[in-house]
Amino acid sequence: QQLSDEEVFEPSQSKRRFVLCTTDYVECVLIPPLIQRLKRLAPGVTIEIRILRDTLPEAELASGEIDLVLGFDEYMQVPGYLGKETWLTEPLAGLVRADLPMAAPALAECGDEPALPAERISLSQLIEMPHVFHSPLGTSEASLDRYLKTLGFSRTISVNSQSYMSAAAIVSQSDHLLVLPSMVAELLASHWPLKSLPLPEDVPDYHLNCVWHPVHAQQPALIWLKALMKELVNPE
Questions:
Q1: Which residues pair with 195 in a beta bridge?
Q2: Least C-beta-crowded within 10 Å: which of 11, 51, 96, 152?
Q3: What is the pTM of this model?
Q4: pLDDT tens-digit profile, the chain (236 residues)
Q5: Mind giving me the DSSP string for the chain?
């Protein structure tokens, strides 16, 4: 491939099919605006989505069967020989039913600074409230659990769900808490009787990564798609 001439890629004329392996987060947040942009720039280009499982599809990336993998650090370990970029750093949020009363946090211990807004998930609530755990890859632990362990705490997971929709349905009819990336939390809260609340500031963020195989890195079509998607994730 390195010795051969790369085909010229004309988005407006292309019938290229791109295969993306990713999580339901990307399906919810990134794919809809991508499809709208393709409709204008490259109407003949199609997108196939494959769900990311518990192992990175290295062989499929090498063969070109899969063009890009998009996922969070906690979902995948990326070997050093693969290309990788972090496209987005996003805070987590807590999702609860819209009419669930949340106790106001205590006043600051030092000085006369005002208390944080009542509509916020406190550390004690993270520990005490029952959780719905969104686990698309069937994992039993997330970055939040590792964060709580460093403080000597753990949370109670009452329900495991592999779908944002089912997790949102459970939370909307219970006193449970669902922790997930803030953009998805806001999206679900706009369609369900739910409210999205910030978490304690020390809770680690999510990092959305794009992964590709270096043997295909110079393909004009792939370079174009990566640039387009990166622009959608981080608009100027």
A1: 96
A2: 152
A3: 0.82
A4: 554 445 688 999 999 999 999 988 898 889 999 999 999 999 999 999 998 887 889 999 999 999 999 988 766 788 999 999 999 999 999 999 999 987 654 433 434 444 444 578 999 999 999 999 987 666 667 889 999 999 999 999 999 988 888 999 999 999 999 999 999 999 999 999 999 999 998 999 988 999 999 999 999 999 999 999 999 987 66
A5: --SSPPPP--TTT---EEEEEE-HHHHHHTHHHHHHHHHHH-TT-EEEEEE--SS--HHHHHHTSS-EEEEEGGG-PPPTTSEEEEEEEE-EEEEEETT---PPPPPPSSTTPPPPPSSS--HHHHHHSEEEEE-TT--S--HHHHHHHHTT---EEEEEES-HHHHHHHHHTSS-EEEEEHHHHHHHHTTSSEEEEEPPTTSPPEEEEEEE-GGGTT-HHHHHHHHHHHHHHS--
Question: For the chain, what's the residue count?
Answer: 236
Whole-angstrom CA distances from 180 to 135, 187, 204, 234 are 10, 11, 12, 19
Q: Tokens 């890195």 map to which residue? A: 217
